[in-house]
Structure formats: structure tokens, C-alpha cells
Amino acid sequence: MMLAYMDRAAAAAEPEDAGEPVVAEDAAGCAAARDFGGLVSVRPAAVVRPASADDVAKAIRAAALTAHLTVAARGNGHSVGGQAMAEGGLVLDMRALALSRRAPMQLVRAPGGAALADVPGGALWEEVLHWAVKNHGLAPASWTDYLRLTVGGTLSNGGVSGQSFRYGPQVSNVAELEVVTGDGECRVCSPSSHPDLFFAVLGGLGQFGVITRARIPLHPAPQTVRWTRVVYASFADYAADAEWLVTRPPEAAFDYVEGFAFVNSDDPVNGWPTVPIPGGARFDASLLPAGAGPVLYCLEVALHQHQHRPDDVDQVVGGMMQPLRYVRGLEFAADVGYVEFLSRVNRVEEEARRNGSWAAPHPWLNLFVSARDIAAFDRAVLNAMLADGIDGPMLVYPMLKSKWDPNTSVALPEGEIFYLVALLRFCRPGGPPVEELVAQNGAILDACRCNGFDFKTYFPCHRGEAEWARHFGAAGWKRFVERKARYDPLAILAPGQRIFPRAGTSPAAGPGMALRES
After folding, report:
1. pLDDT tens digit string along 2-55?
2. C-alpha 3 chain-centroid distance
């Protein structure tokens, strides 16, 4: 099958050189047929590499004229359940938009003088970080742990990390968006201009529009970070201290609070060796209290420093850590550069690429669990079902609901404090088959439902209207459906989420935009 996309598609041109959209006509075996999860593989009809928002709009309008044709925006391919795929449809390679000379990053000023980064939706957060710090000494306040994700990708989901409790998630740290909606129209939106579209797209799972540009508030970048980890044998103490830290007033708070569970053993992948920083520090298991269970907990905090004053850092951090109930002697600290700290997961990627696990399937499960139920979740899941580890990180840390704007499309549990639980499995040689791990994820979800836990899936991958309605709740689902009808009435966008079936074709998509097959 040959797809001819628009009159001026040039399959041999590079978008940054010619400024033309590029169509990969042979989609068999292409990267867009796979994602990081490695659990789903579907073949698109074509991969479109847009050089501008106008190219994105033309692709969507063209799809509207062809029955059953859908469009998915793909960033850096880090979905884990096929969410950015389009079986038999068009996949927009948003990285091409970021690399186009038509869409450079720019520093802009708000009317009051505040600095903002105007960046392509396909830019990696790593690229935003290096550009902002190197050129302007500035940086966004909110990040994800892994920075090789696209701006549009994380803003379409939430964008969380250890900064979220204080500065809010990434969807709370954006001032303006340029969005191409499902009717092929390019719109600029913000909290004051087309606010319903703005908030619909944030956390909207790609259902309402493709983010082609975003304006991100910037702040003076710290020079260094005091990075500290401490160990707990008691989940009750761990959770109480973590929740106390994230509810401190700003002048008495860390800039980053995360944590993870790990196995009480010398297993190099799941146990004690995963805790010490910097590399080479020793975990002295003899300091653990008698009767420590099979799972331990590591609280991880960081304090930004805008001037390098180690004596002040020691005093300030020492005072903040003193009330905590961690196991004395099991504390690890390092002073690192700000960019180095934010790039810390790169080392994990490098090692995973070396040992082959980066290319293996990743049956990840991400949940938001209410603080009301987190202790019961620890007993039923972490200390029972996952007591031997998962061959990857088990993140468990609290966030504050008041830092999230309720107008966005993100679904959250009830209550002010909820936890991110991220089970980031890596399939390693000799480990359980991926089917067994996927089944265990299903058993974890079943346990949450059977125990009546208040939880939501993050990066949701539901099947059927009933599951999606339960995910959003009655009012949230009603709003979600209304927004879909308003901004993508043919359900062209983000088919990989499997929320809405594609509707019929539109006669009003404009002349000269039809897709032809031969």
C-alpha cells in the first residue's frame, strides 16, 4: 500500500532542512509500531514527520476525510501500553517538530517581566533543561524523574516527580499551549484564553488535541543540590515522616521529596545496594532493628542551593532531618550539581542499555493511592505480593492534591494527600516471563478493588467505557465525554488509548487534503 500524504509531502527530505512534512510510507517494523513497554505492537499506515503546527493540522484534516483513519502523536516512544500508537492510522513523530528550524526554543517575557520558555511539544525535557540553564541560568520548577520524555507527552498525562508536592506537577506549571484539535484547527489557549481547551488538554491523554508548543514558567536555576537518602524499617514511620515533610511551609521545606521500597537483602537489583549515594558508599545492614520485615523503605530528599555554602547546608539540612524517625547510621548524602541531579536517571538507562534490559518489555504499573489506604496497600501488595522485589524501582511517595488544578483532565483519588506508587519493572534474563508480570499487575489492581482502596491508575490503560467511567468518576467522565465531542467530534485523536471509537468522515475538512491509496 502506498499512502500519499498531502500535495507537498517529500519522503526523502529532512524536516529541519526543507521545512516539509515527511511521510514514512513503509510502516512495517518502524519504531512507531512499538513503544517502551514492549507489550503492544501495531502497524500504522504511515509515520508523518511534521515541521510545523500547520503540518499537524493538515494531517488531522486529511484523516477526517478518510473513513476509520486515526492520528496519534508520538513523542520519544515511552508509553508502556500502546497509548501513542495508531493501528492502520497516522503517527505524528513529534520529535521531528522539535528538530525543525521552524520551531526553536525561545525565551519570552510575560507582561510583568516573568521569564518563560516557549518550546516545541516534541522537545525533550532534557533539552529544555540544558537550553534554559546554559543560555539563561533559568529552569522550570517541576520535572519528571526521567528527562528524555517530551514536553507534550508529560503535559498530556500529568508530569510528576519529587518536586510535585511543593511546586505542583508539570500540568500545573504551564502558562500557555498551542494545540491542534481534532477538527484540524490550531488554537492558542491559556487559563484566560480558551480555558476549557487549555485544561482539557492538560492530562487529557491526547484525546482533545496535539500539543505543538508550550510556554513554561522559568525560575533562577540552583547551582547545587544536597541529595540525601535515609532508611526506614517501619512503613508507619516512613509514611508519617514523608507526609510531614510534604506539608511543611515553604520556608521550612525541602525542594524534593521522594521515596521507594526495597527488599531487605543483599540482592544487587532489589536490595540494599540500590540505596547508597554516592556510589561506593556501604549499606550496613547490622544497623537495622531486630525483626525488620522483608521490605524496607528509603526516603529521598533534596535541598536546592543557589550559592555554594556547605556549612549552611549542613546546618539547614541537619535541622530538617533531626525530627525524622529513620534508622540512625543509615543515611547517605552527596552534594551534586543541579543538572547532574535532575539527570540522575540517565545512569540507570546507560546500565540498562548495557545489560539489555532497556530493550526488553517493561510491564510498568503506576498508581495514585489515597493516603487513607496506603498502609493497607503496603501490607497487601508491597509486603505480600512484591516482597521479593520486581527487578526495578518500587517508588512510593506522597503528593498534595491542592497543587493540582481540578479543571485539568487528570483523575486523582479523594483527600489532600495521595501517593504515587510506581512499579517500574525491568524484564531481566532468567526472570519471570512477561506474561506472568502482566498478570501480577492485574492481580494488584484486583486487590486494590477488592480491598476498596481509593486509587487511580496513572498512565491509564483501560478497556471499555465502564472502566473509563469508573476511572474518571461520574462527573469527570461526563466532562471528559463532553470535551471529546467539542474538540475531537470524529474521535480521530489518540486511538491507542482505546477510549472512543472512530466516527464517520467529515465533509468539511477542506480541499486538497485527501489521503489517496494506490
Report:
1. 233 333 333 333 344 334 455 655 544 588 999 999 999 999 999 999 999 999
2. 32
Distance CA 443, CA 434 (A): 14
Task: Give the β-pairing of 331-337 and 224-232.
Answer: antiparallel
The single residue of 145, 178, 183, 391 carrying the catalytic annotation is 145
Total-model pTM: 0.92
Which of 20, 35, 78, 93 is flagged as catalytic? 78
Q: CA 8 → CA 317, 444, 509, distances in Å? A: 59, 50, 17
Q: What is the predicted pLDDT for the residue at 22?
A: 58
DSSP, collapsed to helix, strand or coil, labels residue 293 as: coil
Tell the burial category of 28 from Cβ atoms under 10 Å away from its Cβ (0-12, 13-18, 19+).
Answer: exposed
Q: Is 55 among the catalytic positions?
A: no
d(CA 374, CA 243): 12
Q: Is 391 a catalytic residue?
A: no
The burial of 329, by beta-carbon neighbours within 10 Å (0-12 exposed, 13-18 middle, 19 or more buried), is given as: exposed
Residue 315: strand, helix, or coil: helix
Which residues face 262 on adjacent strands? 296
Residue 472 neighbours by CB under 8 Å, 6+ apart: 411, 479, 480
Is 78 assigned a catalytic role?
yes
In this structure, the dihedral spanned by the alpha carbons of residues 499, 501, 502 and 503, taken in order and rounded to 10 degrees, is -120
- In Å, how far are 231, 388, 400, 420, 488 from 370, measured between CA atoms? 23, 24, 10, 9, 32
DSSP 8-state symbol, 132: H
Short-list 406, 407, 405, 411, CA closest to 469: 411
Contact 330, 283 (CB under 8 A): yes
Report cis status (omega within 30 of 0) of the bond before 278: yes
The single residue of 258, 373, 391, 488 carrying the catalytic annotation is 258
Rounded Cα–Cα distance for residues 397 and 403 (Å): 15
Q: Identify any residues that bridge with 420 across adjacent strands, giving them in sequence order.
A: 368, 397
